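Fold sample X.
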Amino acid sequence: MNAFDLSALRLGAGLLAFAALTAPAVAAPEPPLLAAEPPLVLAGRVDGVVPAGAGVATLRDGALVLLDADGRASGGCRGGAAALASGPRRDATALSREEVLGEAGFSPEDVSPEAEELLDDEGIEPRARRAPVNATAGAPRALSLAATNDAAWLGTVDGLWRFDARDGSCVPAALAGQEIALVAARGATVVALVDVTVWRSRDTGTTFDVAAVLTSPAHALALAGDETAFVSDEDGVVEIGPAHGFRRRLEGRVDALVACGPDVAALADDGVHRLDLGGGELLVGPRPAARALACASDGLVAAGIGLWTSPDGATWREEPCTLGRSFSGVAWAAGFAWLAGEDGLLRVRPGGAQEPLVVSTPEPRARHPVDGTHPPAWAGLLPRVAVAFDGWTASTGVAGWRLWVLLTVSLGRRWQRTTTENLEDVR
């Protein structure tokens, strides 16, 4: 470092010190209002979620758990590995059923196998023993899930099983002895994937026949129209239907498929594609950081690294309440996005209840209550760090990833009251 550099460094330090001494005294900035934390509806790892009537059907630890529109467990199909054990009985001073479930992170209405096993271990008789419930013991471990308004279909390690929402029965349906990797249902059509074989039923699962044999194993499935299946394998997407038979619709890796009306949305490596039954294909927009897709009431929702919403698949908005969280599945029901992941099932209403951060200043001398929902006042003075990925670079003898780090520091600026109408003023 030469003399000029040292002089510039001393000058900069002096200016900063002068600014700190002469800056007018201001009140400590109030913290921003943070996005609400989405509620946990079902504890424990959830591997899949699909709409089912007014609520959702979930795949939890290899078993089916049904939830109504309010997130209360309403039935299920218990796997054989989750059979109830006989635990010791507790005395009259024991906690209530609701207290035991609440302390363990379950909903008070949870009738899942794990909740029943917990109650049995604590000496509390589950509701399943006091009155009939929609649960049946002995079903094989489920790997895939589909649902209609009156039934849920489980693809298990030993065939296809059907849960009837009307009487609570859960019985084998077809393809015994085969491992069902994927299943989809729409009206009277049921499609099941066994390795590279596509099985199809046109009579609500009464009989099945082979619809097609793929060139590689499948990892995504959707039903469009009356009985047309779209299947994603290692080479892209194929269409299997009565009108055009078997035909290749899209090349390249596709991780998720969902049928919204007459069209199918495909989550591909190069973006979001729209496929229609007439043979049309259109790349409509970029791919969000997601691995699962679902149809919403007015567009699409996607889940992966956070929750993303889009009116058309062309533009995407990330919901702030799920920033930094990872999800494996998503469904839309009762005006909510239901997110499945390692930590359980979350229920999020996009927009409204979880808006972006809105800066707010209370009336003079008013203070936020100390209730643990707001960060301390000094938190607003902390620097903000943003990291942006700028792609792979290579030159003679040098190659690597390029990252930009942006450090933002607030120096004495008082935060202004802002509403959603003028939020752009503080961005």
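Fold sample Y, listed below.
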Amino acid sequence: SDGFRGGGIHSRSSKRGIRPRCKSNIAFTLIELLVVIGIIGVLAGLLLPALSKGKNKAVSVTDINNLKQIMLATQMYGSENSDSAPWPNWLKGDSAGRHGWLYTLDTSSSGPAQFKTQTGLFWNTLKNNRMYFCPMDDTNSPLFSQRSQQSSSYAMNGAVCGYMRTNFPVSKLSAFQPEDVAFWETDEKHPKYFNDGANFPKEGVSSRHLNGAINAAFDGSAGYIRIDTWYIDVADSNKNILWCYPGSPDGR
């Protein structure tokens, strides 16, 4: 019996010596947390430029489509009007009775209300205000509110009316080389360039598309042009795709 009791005591003491296993606490140390944050930062740095390029490419496609439609309207107008280009809305020559590609000047109104796209030559073809705008043109920005003309992101090349000559009737479409630039995206950093529907090449072009802009040629094509390429042609004293007024040797 003593052996039994001893055995019992030994058994109970053995059971008391067995401790239940505890789950270990899993937690990040400060260094581990900083490493994770650093990795996330590196990945974001790699992904954001790619996302930006992707967005820009999508917007560029919209711009190209818009300008192709504008050039189609230009060519349709020419085919119905003895090959004449439309009036480019050069402000010096604008008047209440002169219909331009973008608007017919409303002299009874003031400010942006003078330049309604619905009164322009292309409205019956385009019939959508979005066709006149680059999606990246921020219409809520303070600079946008300073524009006199708030109807379009695009400008026609003033070469069609001889720039400050304000020739009317304007040049024939066939007088231009196919690759000559007819429309481009105006530089949004300078509200004063949005005073009408046409510009000088030297007034600049937008850099919103990864340091370049979308433009359209008289042959109906539209594509991307780099800012540095644009200003090389602006500085060129010879006739080129930007300075392309048919009535002068240097296109100016």
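Sample Y note: The first helix runs from residue 2 to 17.
Also: Strands lie at 154-157, 181-185, 198-199, 212-217, 222-226.
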